[in-house]
Amino acid sequence: MLHNDVLRRLRYALAINDTAAISIFKLADYDMDMAYLHAIMKKEEEEGYLPCRDKIITLFLDGLIIKNRGKQEGQKPGELAANARLSNNDLLRKIRIAMRYKDEDIIAILNLAQFRMSKSELSALFRKPDHRNYKPAGDQVVRNLLQGMVKKYRSGGKGASTSSVVASHSPATKSQRTAQGKNEGTARKKENTAPKKTDSPSNSVWGKV
């Protein structure tokens, strides 16, 4: 999967605009040029497209980790070695760390994209490459995780939360269905009266960056 697509879908899922994206790169000690950012956000068939290098997507993910978990004192973000490649497994690991996902969270988000994966299958993706149970992650896993994140965070509040997806496998009782109906009615009223969101840093999942 092209790193351009990963960056574009991550930004969309988390509602990260240009200003916030540049600030995230800055957290990883990288001064991102706006023109270059726009070029790597383009699709291959678009004029002015430039490929997003492994180093760039790594810096962005490291910036997300620092934004969410804080920067460790006395330590600089690790730079990807020259000619080194960021594997899908590494990419998934960085997203997991940045978003503080547990195995159950990732499985639930994959379910939002109609992609089923068992806990043992998922664990194999996070093993060390020399582990006997290690499995390389395919583009399909990354693509569906990003799609699930879009549904979770950008569906106007209709995306299922992790807890509700996990709980949905158990049949609801009559009292639970009644309570759920009342909650949904209240949520719809709030949604109808709530001000419309704009694409600004404050509306990002990350808040003001």
UniProtKB/TrEMBL annotation:
Which Pfam families does its entry note? DUF1456
User: What are the coiled-coil residue ranges?
Assistant: none
Give the taxonomic lineage as stored in the record: Bacteria, Pseudomonadati, Pseudomonadota, Gammaproteobacteria, Alteromonadales
List the residue ranges of the region (Disordered): 154-209
Question: Which InterPro entries does the record match to this protein?
Answer: YehS-like
Compositionally biased, Basic and acidic residues: which spans? 185-199
List where Polar residues composition bias occurs. 160-183, 200-209
* Protein name as catalogued: DUF1456 domain-containing protein
Q: Which organism is it from?
A: Alteromonas australica
